[in-house]
């Protein structure tokens, strides 16, 4: 009998972590951990966790949020840059697959859609630390998938959709910026696509790890502005101005 995969999900209480637990149901044994169980900013704790769980598949959803852009030091560095290196090293040791999420904040905005081969140009401290995390995983190597995503929203956690719905209960009129473009991506679709790709790579559909290990953009289709996103959320129910 083949042993079932063990999936370690860090940042499990976050919006993507919750959906990953749903989407990977039935795929294997899930070990879901959050800040209460392990502080990913603590290298020893992170190593000890991976060694204890010994996963075949590890998914990391923790971020240090974009709120950090106003902080001059590098508060998110331990979580966004150092933790991915440690997880990649541990994954390599176990020959496990590491799935890691990054962000469009690692890229300079441009008129056309962002592609994986664009030169990175982090937009802020958050983008710098997430780029360092991507590079650390790539340097360590092994079996890994880095998914850059954007504007994640869904039924849980802090996100634009839930913020708009809350503000709509508190205010008659909302004013939203109309000059930044992005691809809103539901946490549900992100988790579903993550499972589909993971099943594909583990099932040998995409060739060898040397062929599929790498960095990919993973978002829902199309793009809009925050204003366009807000208009879609309210669809005629609320007065929204840019
Ligand atoms: N949200 C977006 O729009 C967006 C866009 C692009 C990329 N991403 C990437 O997608 C991934 C998932 O994002 P998300 O929106 O699901 O994040 P999230 O909702 O903020 O979830 C992060 C989770 O990690 C936990 N956590 C915080 N500090 C930790 C620590 N030191 N050690 C261990 N766990 C800790 C948090 O717990 P607490 O709640 O207790 O802090 C929370 O449960 C991230 O890697 C992020 O960079 C997100």
Q: What's the pLDDT, averaged over the residues?
A: 90
CATH class annotation? Alpha Beta
CATH superfamily: NAD(P)-binding Rossmann-like Domain
Low-confidence stretches: 63-73
Number of domains: 1
Order of helices and strands: EHEHEHEHEEHEEEHHEEHE
The general outline is: globular
- Strand elements, count: 12
For the terminal residues, how far apart are their CA atoms?
A: 59 Å
Radius of gyration: 18 Å
Briefly summarize what is shown.
The chain is an alpha/beta fold and 242 residues long. It has helices at 15-23, 43-53, 77-94, 125-140, 160-170, 187-202, 209-212, 226-234; strands spanning 6-10, 29-33, 57-60, 97-103, 143-149, 152-153, 173-175, 181-182, 185-186, 214-217, 224-225, 239-241.
What would your notes on this structure say?
By secondary structure, the chain is of the alpha/beta class. The chain has one domain (6-159, 184-223): NAD(P)-binding Rossmann-like Domain (Rossmann fold, 3-Layer(aba) Sandwich). It is built from 8 helices and 12 strands. Strands 2-1-3-4-5-10 form a 6-stranded parallel β-sheet, with helices on both faces. Strands 6-9 form a two-stranded parallel sheet. Strands 7-12 form a two-stranded parallel ribbon. Helix 5 crosses helix 8. The longest helix is centred in the middle third of the chain and has 18 residues, at 77-94.
């Amino acid at each position: 009998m083949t042993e079932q995969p063990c999936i370690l999900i860090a940042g499990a209480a976050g919006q993507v972590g919750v959906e990953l637990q749903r989407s990977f149901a039935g795929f294997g044994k899930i070990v879901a951990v959050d800040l209460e169980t392990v502080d990913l900013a603590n290298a020893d704790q992170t190593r000890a966790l991976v060694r204890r769980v010994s996963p075949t598949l590890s998914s990391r959803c923790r971020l240090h949020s974009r709120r950090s852009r106003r902080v001059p030091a590098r508060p998110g560095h331990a979580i966004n840059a150092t933790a991915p290196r440690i997880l990649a090293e541990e994954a390599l040791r176990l020959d496990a697959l590491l799935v890691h999420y990054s962000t469009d904040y690692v890229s300079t905005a441009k008129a056309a859609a962002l592609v994986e081969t664009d030169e990175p140009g982090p937009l802020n401290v958050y983008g710098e630390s997430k780029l360092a995390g991507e590079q650390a995983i790539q340097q360590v190597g092994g079996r890994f998938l880095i998914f850059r995503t954007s504007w994640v929203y869904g039924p849980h956690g802090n996100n634009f959709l839930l913020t708009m719905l809350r503000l709509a209960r508190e205010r008659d009129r909302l004013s939203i910026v109309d000059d930044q473009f992005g691809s809103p991506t539901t946490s549900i679709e992100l988790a579903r696509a993550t499972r589909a790709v993971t099943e594909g790579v583990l099932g040998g559909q995409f060739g060898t790890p040397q062929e599929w290990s790498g960095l990919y953009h993973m978002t829902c289709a199309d793009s809009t502005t925050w204003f366009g996103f807000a208009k879609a959320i309210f669809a005629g129910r609320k007065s929204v101005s840019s």
